[in-house]
From TrEMBL:
GO term, biological process aspect, one: xylan catabolic process
GO (cellular component) term, any one: extracellular region
Descriptive protein name: Alpha-glucuronidase
Record domain Glycosyl hydrolase family 67 catalytic: where: 135-468
GO molecular function list: alpha-glucuronidase activity; xylan alpha-1,2-glucuronosidase activity
Residue span(s) of domain Glycosyl hydrolase family 67 C-terminal: 469-692
Domain of life of the source: Bacteria
Alphabetical keyword list: Hydrolase
InterPro entries: A-glucoronidase_C_sf (IPR037054), GH (IPR017853), Glyco_hydro_67_C (IPR011099), Glyco_hydro_67_cat (IPR011100), Hex-like_dom2 (IPR029018)
Organism encoding this protein: Promicromonospora thailandica
Family matches, as Pfam families: Glyco_hydro_67C, Glyco_hydro_67M
Length: 695
C-alpha cells in the first residue's frame, strides 16, 4: 500500500525513542538482574538494543556475581523482595547510579526504579559510560505524575473524539469501542515511561453517557488497557460521572449523603479493583460546565469527594477532585461576579475537610490555561489538603499544535513561583506545594503544611496522529512535562537539548541550535501576537482558535476584557475591583493590588487602565500592544528562517509536516496582529508612533 492509499496508517514516529537512541547502551555488555514484571520489560529493551547494536545481554538473579559487564541494571540487594516485585508501581521508583572506571551499575530501589534507571542511561547516551567516576541517587519529586486524556469513546458531535485534541483520534478508542489492537497504546506507554509518567486517566473529564459505562459494562476493556500500561509502570485511572448511580445504577439520586448512593460506589469500586488490582482511582469534574455534582443536593464538594474517597480507600485508591468550579452562566452585565475568584471561594473554606485520599486538582491559573495568568491562589490556600497542580500539555489556548509553542519555560516559571516572597528566598515554591516538600521548607507564616503530596496532572496532547502530537515539535511539550514532574527544577532549555538529542540522534549540531532558536522563546512569541498583558482569551468562541477580540465579551462565560474607547482590563483589586488580588498572601496581594507594582505582563489581568498608562517598560499600553504584535509576527518569520536552513537535514516527512504548520502559524499570527492592532486603533484612536500599517 502506498502512503496515499486509503486506510494507510503510517508507523508512528518514534518520537524520543528511535532505535538509535539506544546505540550507546546497545553496544555494551549489559546485565539485568531482577525478577519483577518491570525487570522483564527492561530485559526486553536491553535484549533488543544489544541485538541491534552488537552488544551482549544476560539476565541474572539479584546478588549473583557479575564479571565483565559495562552496565548492570539490578535491584538493590537490600530491597525487600515483596515491594520490589509487588504490585505497587509507585514504590521503589528511585535508583542509584555508580560509575567506576567506565563500568556502570544502576541499583534500583524497586522494580519501577529499574525501568527509570534504564531510561536514564538511554538519555545519557555515551556520556553514561565515558563520564567521570560518579555516585548519584535519583528519585522522583513525587509519586503522582499523571496525564489526563480528554478522549471520548464515541465521537462527540461538537467536541469530536478528543476534546481539545489536535492530534487526530484517540489512542484508546475507535468506532465507539476500545480498540482491539492496542499496539499503539503500547508504544505510547513506552514513551511515557521513558519520561517518568506513572499514571494515566484514559477518558474525558466531561463524562458523557457512553463514556460513563467504562466503569461498568466496558470494564473488561479497561482491564486490557491497564495491562498494557502496567508493563511500563503506569497505573490507569478513570474519569467518572458524579451522576453514575443514576446513569448506570438506576437510582433516582446521586446525593453523596444517601446511603444507597454510597453503597453503589462501594460496589463499583470493589468491581474495578477486583478486575484491576493496581487501578489508580477516579478523576471527577463536578458542578463545572454542566457536569453533575453535589451542589444539586445542597452538599459541599468535600461531601461529594469524601463519599467517593471512602469507597476507594480500602484499595489505596485516589480521588482526583477538580477545583475548576465556576458559574458558566453569568450575566456579562454583572461586573461584581469574577470567574477568577470562583475556585478559591469554593475550595478555600473546605481546607481540612477532604479525606486523606482526595487530591484537589487545581489548574495553574484562576481562569483557564491562558498563555499568561497569575498562578492560582488556591494552590497556596489549602495547607491541610492534598493539592495537585494541573497543566495543559494540549495547546488549547496556545496555538492548538499548529503553532510551535514550547511550554517548558511557562511551566518552569509556575513551578518556581513562590507565594510568600517576591524573589523565591527560602519559602516554598509551587513545586514544593505539589510534591509535599513544603512541609520541609521553613514555615512561610501561613501555618504548617500537613498533607502529603498531590503531585502533578496535565491534559495530554497525544493522539493517533503519525507524529503523536500533530506538530512534531509539540512532542517536546509532552517530553518536558514528564521530566518536570520527575524533577521540577530541571531547566527547560536543557530539556529541549535532551529531547532533541534523543529525537534527532546523529543530526548535526545545527539542528539542535535551530530548535533552540525556534522554541526557546516561542511561548513569549505566542503571547506577543495574541491577547496582551495578561488579559486573556480574545479567541473564537467554541473551538478557541484564532483571534476574535469581542468573541466572548457578551457571553455568559466570564472571560471579559472590558475594552472601551478609553482603556482596557479587569479591575481585580481589593480597593476598587472584584477583590481577587486579596486571595493572595503577602507580598503578592499588595504587589498585584497597585498598578505601580503589578508586573507588566499581568497588568490587564488585575487592572483596568487607560491606553496611555505607562508600563514599567516605559511604553504606553497602546504602544506596547502595537509593538508586541509587530514583533510577534517578525519573530515567527525568524523562527521559520532558522528552521528552513536545517530542515533538509531531518526526515523529509517530518520536515514537510513542520513546514505546513509553520505556514499556518505565520498566517494565523498575521491575522492576530492585524485584528488586534486594528481593533485597538479603532477603539482608542491613538496612532502607532512608528506609523506602521494598521488597517
Ligand atoms: O479549558 C476548558 C475547555 C473544556 C474543558 C474544561 C475543563 C474538558 O475549554 O473543553 O473540558 O476546560 O478543564 O474541564
Amino acid at each position: 500500500m502506498t502512503a496515499d492509499a486509503p486506510g494507510f496508517v503510517p508507523t508512528p514516529h518514534p518520537a524520543w525513542l528511535p532505535d538509535d537512541a539506544f546505540a550507546a547502551l546497545g553496544r555494551r555488555r549489559v546485565v539485568v538482574a531482577g525478577d519483577g514484571a518491570l525487570a522483564g520489560t527492561v530485559a526486553e529493551e536491553v535484549a533488543a538494543a544489544t541485538a541491534r547494536f552488537g552488544g551482549s545481554f544476560s539476565r541474572l538473579e539479584v546478588g549473583d556475581g557479575v564479571a565483565d559487564a559495562d552496565l548492570v541494571l539490578t535491584l538493590a540487594t537490600d530491597t525487600d523482595a515483596g515491594s520490589a516485585s509487588g504490585t505497587d508501581p509507585d514504590a521503589g521508583e528511585g535508583f542509584r547510579l555508580t560509575r567506576e572506571g567506565g563500568a556502570v551499575v544502576v541499583q534500583a530501589d524497586g522494580d519501577a526504579g529499574l525501568l527509570h534507571g534504564l531510561f536514564h542511561v538511554v538519555r545519557l547516551g555515551e556520556a553514561a559510560f565515558d563520564g567521570p567516576d560518579a555516585d548519584e541517587t535519583h528519585a522522583p519529586a513525587t509519586g503522582l505524575r499523571m496525564l489526563d486524556h480528554w478522549d471520548n469513546v464515541d465521537t462527540h458531535p461538537v467536541m469530536g473524539q478528543v476534546e481539545r485534541g489536535y492530534s487526530g483520534g484517540s489512542l484508546f478508542y475507535e468506532d465507539g469501542v476500545v480498540r482491539a489492537d492496542l499496539s499503539r497504546v503500547e508504544r505510547y506507554a513506552r514513551l511515557l515511561a521513558a519520561v517518568g509518567i506513572n499514571r494515566v486517566a484514559i477518558n474525558n473529564v466531561n463524562v458523557h453517557r457512553r463514556e460513563a459505562r467504562l466503569l461498568t459494562d466496558d470494564l473488561g476493556d479497561v482491564v486490557r488497557i491497564a495491562a498494557v500500561f502496567r508493563r511500563w509502570g503506569i497505573r490507569v485511572h478513570l474519569s467518572v460521572s458524579f451522576a453514575s448511580p443514576i446513569l448506570l445504577g438506576g437510582l433516582s439520586t446521586s446525593d453523596p449523603l444517601d446511603t444507597d448512593v454510597a453503597h453503589w460506589w462501594v460496589r463499583a469500586a470493589a468491581r474495578v479493583w477486583s478486575a484491576i488490582p493496581d487501578f489508580g482511582g477516579f478523576v471527577v469534574k463536578a458542578d463545572s460546565e454542566g457536569q453533575p455534582g453535589p451542589f444539586a443536593y445542597g452538599r459541599t464538594h468535600a461531601d461529594g469527594a469524601n463519599m467517593l474517597a471512602a469507597a476507594v480507600e480500602p484499595y489505596d485508591g485516589l480521588i482526583h477532585w477538580r477545583a475548576f468550579v465556576y458559574d458558566h452562566r453569568q450575566d456579562w452585565r454583572d461586573r461584581s461576579t469574577d470567574r477568577a475568584r470562583a475556585a478559591y471561594d469554593h475550595f478555600h473554606p473546605l481546607d481540612g475537610a477532604f479525606a486523606d485520599n482526595v487530591v484537589v486538582q487545581v489548574k495553574y491559573g484562576p481562569m483557564d490555561f491562558q498563555v499568561r495568568e497569575p498562578v492560582s491562589p488556591v494552590l497556596a490556600a489549602m495547607p491541610r489538603t492534598r493539592i495537585a497542580l494541573e497543566l495543559q500539555v494540549t495547546q488549547e489556548y496556545t496555538g492548538q499544535q499548529r503553532h510551535a509553542v514550547y511550554l517548558g519555560p511557562q511551566w518552569s516559571q509556575i513551578l518556581g513561583f513562590s507565594f510568600w516572597s517576591a524573589d523565591g528566598g527560602a519559602s516554598p515554591t509551587v513545586a514544593d506545594l505539589a510534591t509535599g516538600r513544603a512541609k520541609a521548607v521553613e514555615d512561610p507564616g501561613t501555618g504548617a503544611w500537613h498533607k502529603p503530596a498531590g503531585g502533578f496532572a496535565a491534559v495530554s496532547n497525544a493522539g493517533d496522529d503519525e507524529f503523536w502530537t500533530g506538530h512534531p515539535f509539540a512532542q517536546a511539550n509532552l517530553y518536558a512535562y514528564g521530566r518536570l514532574c520527575w524533577d521540577p527544577t530541571l531547566d527547560p532549555a536543557d530539556l529541549l537539548d535532551e529531547w532533541a538529542g534523543l529525537t534527532f540522534p546523529g543530526a548535526p549540531d545545527a539542528v539542535r541550535q535551530a530548535l533552540h532558536t525556534v522554541l526557546d522563546g516561542s511561548w513569549e512569541t505566542y503571547e506577543r501576537y495574541t491577547s496582551p498583558l495578561g488579559v486573556g482569551f480574545m479567541v473564537r468562541p467554541g473551538h478557541h482558535y484564532g483571534p476574535d477580540v469581542d468573541g466572548y465579551e457578551y457571553t455568559p462565560w466570564g472571560t471579559y476584557h472590558f475594552a472601551d474607547r478609553d482603556g482596557i482590563g479587569v479591575d481585580r483589586s481589593v480597593r476598587t475591583g472584584t477583590g481577587y488580588a486579596g486571595q493572595y498572601p503577602s507580598p503578592w496581594r499588595e504587589t498585584y493590588e497597585s498598578t505601580r507594582t503589578c508586573p507588566d505582563e499581568l497588568l490587564l489581568f488585575f487592572h483596568h487602565v487607560p491606553y496611555t498608562h505607562v508600563l514599567h517598560s516605559g511604553s504606553t499600553v497602546i504602544q506596547h500592544i502595537y509593538d508586541t504584535h509587530f514583533a510577534g509576527v517578525d519573530a515567527v518569520e525568524r523562527m521559520i528562517e532558522a528552521w528552513s536552513a536545517v530542515s533538509p537535514l531531518v526526515d523529509p516527512r517530518l520536515a514537510e509536516r513542520v513546514a505546513e504548520r509553520f505556514a499556518e502559524q505565520l498566517r494565523s499570527a498575521t491575522e492576530w496582529r492585524d485584528q488586534i492592532n486594528t481593533y485597538f486603533l479603532r477603539k482608542s484612536g491613538i496612532p502607532d508612533e512608528r506609523g506602521r500599517t494598521i488597517y
